Amino acid sequence: MNKTVNVGLLGFGTVGGGTARILLEQEDLLSRRTGTSIRLAKICDKDIISDRGFSVPPGVLTQDLGDILDNPDIDIFVELIGGIEPARSFILQAIKNGKHVVTANKALLATHGYEIFKAAAGAGVEVAFEASVGGGIPVIKALKEGLVANRFHTIMGIMNGTANYILSEMTEKGKEFKEVLSQAQELGYAELDPTYDVEGIDTAHKLAIMATIAFGSPVSLDDVYTEGISRISPMDISFAKDLGYRIKLLAITREQPDGIELRVHPTMVPSDHLLAQVGGAYNAFYLIGDFAGKVLMYGLGAGQRPTGSAVAADVVDIARNIVHGAQRRVDPLGIPFDRLSPLKKAPMDNLSSRYYFRFSVLDRPGVLAKISGILGDQGISIASVVQEGRDRTGSVPIVMLTHEAMEKRVRAALDVIDRLDVVSDATMVIRMEDLHAIEGN
Amino acid sequence: MNKTVNVGLLGFGTVGGGTARILLEQEDLLSRRTGTSIRLAKICDKDIISDRGFSVPPGVLTQDLGDILDNPDIDIFVELIGGIEPARSFILQAIKNGKHVVTANKALLATHGYEIFKAAAGAGVEVAFEASVGGGIPVIKALKEGLVANRFHTIMGIMNGTANYILSEMTEKGKEFKEVLSQAQELGYAELDPTYDVEGIDTAHKLAIMATIAFGSPVSLDDVYTEGISRISPMDISFAKDLGYRIKLLAITREQPDGIELRVHPTMVPSDHLLAQVGGAYNAFYLIGDFAGKVLMYGLGAGQRPTGSAVAADVVDIARNIVHGAQRRVDPLGIPFDRLSPLKKAPMDNLSSRYYFRFSVLDRPGVLAKISGILGDQGISIASVVQEGRDRTGSVPIVMLTHEAMEKRVRAALDVIDRLDVVSDATMVIRMEDLHAIEGN
After folding, report:
1. By CA distance, what is A319's nearest residue in B?
2. A349-433 maps to CATH 3.40.470.10
3. Is pLDDT at B441 greater than 50 in this prediction?
4. CA–CA dist B356, B401 (Å, integer)
5. A136:B293 CB<8 A
């Protein structure tokens, strides 16, 4: 049982550096715990990187990917360059060459996952991706193994640290979105192009991966209804606070009678709910199973050390399987690839929720009556209205909360309202989730 | 790969019922997810139980344990009768007969674990015990697998739902311990003999198991310093609130320069910390790794359905190993049995903490000076004092907070103080943990 398992790592950037570091620094610990020698044999990067703050044994660094993909000694290929191409081609090549794959590439899996998992099933190799969701939090393993005997009723969570950091700062300091974003970029918490993080796309990638496992149906990015946080204003946050809520970018998937609900959008969460307490760059996942009940997992969703921890856990899992001849002991998606069932999606139109609207209107007589009338025409019942301040020349906000209403009717009403002459900007819509009720189900 | 794995279950009580139910109700789901047929072949109980609210296939119920232990068709023995004997003997017999073992028996593992794990290592069978800690929360798997590449700096948590329920009710409703306990007993949240739960013993069992895995050294119940919550008064809770704290029964293990810290006691937790928000019968575990950082896992720590979920996950894990010929793919303790290192315990005397004292004193002049003097003699520095109310005939409380002080000196001072004529009752001591600082380490 004392086989050495050799790992080849592609991408020596932030996550690659964290992964190399944990595999090198904890080599003895892993050998003691597993009884197997797990060796970081090659690190490939197109740039020559001599110093990452820790020493790499001689002969490990290479600029030639063939040293990994065509090297028969390499058992596990770790892809950490991100993006769609060439990551996709490299992974498919590694699978073809009989290598197991570990990746943190949520964008790739959420768009080309089917192709990759199919190829891996055909070749009998593993594809592991704990690091693609929730950084250091072992949430994929919990879904596939720890909670394996549960039907999942709901999975929801705060899955993007950057967006959560921005919302938390806006909430605590009353600052504008743009101001906090620039500050986050300076601190390195947000990318120069923050679109994926702030527009909910990164969150949707992660939700697609989790829903695929939880419900055993292939879910891709396009299946997820996605809204970001860039239009949230300090006014929305302040109204939310007064109402006893916090605004969070929430990902939600639920099994409903009409199919699987899949959505990512800013959400008002009751302030006394644990998800409302998740601040800064932290992530939190709520997994609600029919036997386990609700299980929350919370931790650092990004960063080189937490992500390295997740990649290393996948490497160890595969190494243990190699040593015991138990490859694909757990299917990559938690269910044999040929048993996936087609996705039946619940139409977003059918969603029933309470809504927060912030209308931007000209301060003229009769505006409120007009808006209320249009909502009434769609059978949307108003729970409360706040109209503050007067501005005869510019635009003023009207905030309105609805009772439970259907998304389809809300959309129909807003289509009319946002075209009114007296409405000066697109209406801000935030869904209010009664999380305590969801959990009670 | 289509082998059937047969399970024999001993104990058809609360947890046994939940386990039988999940294995029967989710048989198809598990077969779809694992590609293996996992069959509940036998349920043994000394009582004839005909109805648990769900139907059991004919021929499954038995009163003869030989139908499981001596039955060559049974692959996995699930022990759910609890207690030390005869559970210990039955498990050892099952191991001798080459059966894998799944148990929820934390008391047995925390006292006779070494013997059981040694026997299992000798026989090459598995011993799985996810259900012994944290009910439906897959925290053992997170320690052994998801966070395998981490050195654990600290593990701490709220590990007993009954104690947490009682403290939460006392906090919310200002009620006395005894009143809430009786109410909890009526509701079935507390046992008729609540000693294990309220005196911290159950929590210490769980901490011993987790510390063994986290640090790779055998820890038993006797190694854990343990105090319970039965002496906490509404006054302590109310003082804690005013100071910005909540009182929780916390289990803490940390690797310190002088050894492994192992302690269970009522603890003041800052109100804004996530652990302070864990209410009712919920459990929460904080695992702090050197790469993953802090990971919190939260959920139902008891109950037949959550515990059944954990037992079933262990059964599935073992079934997958059986099918792939990969028995003991992960060692039961997360490290090969022969690589455990002897426990080096940090002496409790060396603990450094801030302290809350509630002295019960006669209302006489000079009492405060006397107490302060004794603390001063031990070099214990007082941060603040509250003396409220007067009662010339009875006893009055003096509440005192210290700066950082050593346990040894605190004990020495209290030994003197509690023997003073003017002190009418043993001093209530609650340690105040600066959790934000622990996590920063």
Report:
1. B329
2. no
3. no
4. 5
5. yes
Residue A33 in contact with partner chain B when CB distance is under 8 A: yes
Architecture per CATH, A4-136+304-339: 3-Layer(aba) Sandwich (3.40)
pLDDT of residue A392: 65
CB nearest A308 (choices: B34, B291, B313): B291
pLDDT in the model for residue B440: 63
CATH dotted code for B4-135+304-339: 3.40.50.720
B14/chain A closest Cα distance in angstroms: 14
**Chain A closest-CA separation from residue B145 CA (Å):** 7
Predicted local confidence at residue B89, as pLDDT? 98
Average pLDDT score over residue span A301-315: 96
Q: How many CA atoms lie within 13 A of A427 on its CB side?
A: 26
Same fold yes or no, B4-135+304-339 and B139-300:
no
Give the CATH superfamily of A139-300: Dihydrodipicolinate Reductase; domain 2 (3.30.360.10)
pTM: 0.96
pLDDT exceeds cutoff 90 at A95: yes
3-state secondary structure of A128: strand
Tens of pLDDT, residues B33-74: 999 999 999 999 988 776 788 899 999 999 999 999 999 999
Cβ of residue A37 closer than 8 Å to a chain B Cβ: no
- All structural domains of chain A with their residue ranges: 4-136+304-339, 139-300, 349-433
Hey, which bits of A186-230 come out as E strands? Answer: 225-226
The 3-state DSSP class for residue A439 equals helix
CB contact under 8 A, A289 and B312: no
A14 interfaces chain B, CB cutoff of 8 Å:
no
State both tokens at A19.
Answer: 């992964």
pLDDT digits over B333-374, tens only? 999 999 999 999 999 999 999 999 999 999 888 999 999 999
Q: What's the CA gap between A261 and B113, in Å, rounded?
A: 45
Q: Distance between CA B57 and CA B309 in Å, rounded?
A: 20
Q: How far apart are the first and last CA of chain A?
A: 47
End-to-end CA distance of chain B: 47
Mean predicted confidence (pLDDT) in A328-354: 95
- Summarize the confidence of residues B402-413 as an average pLDDT: 97
- Report yes or no: A89 and A69 within 8 Å, Cβ to Cβ: no
Q: What residues of chain A lie within 8 A of the CB of B138, using their CB?
A: 141-142, 145-147, 295
Residues 305-324 of A with CB under 8 A from B: 305-306, 308-310, 312-313, 316-317, 320-321, 324
Instruction: Report percent pLDDT > 70 for chain A.
Output: 98
Rounded Cα gap, residues A163 and A205, in angstroms: 14
Per-residue pLDDT at B370: 96
Shortest distance, CA B361 to any CA of chain A (angstroms):
39
Catalytic residue selected from A206, A248, A294, A345: A206
Tokens 């053992």 sit at which residue?
B140
Q: What is the pLDDT of residue A172?
A: 94
Read off the pLDDT of residues A173-203 as tens digits, 9 standing for 90 and up: 999 999 999 999 998 888 889 999 999 999 9
Catalytic-labelled residue, pool B42, B144, B206, B248: B206
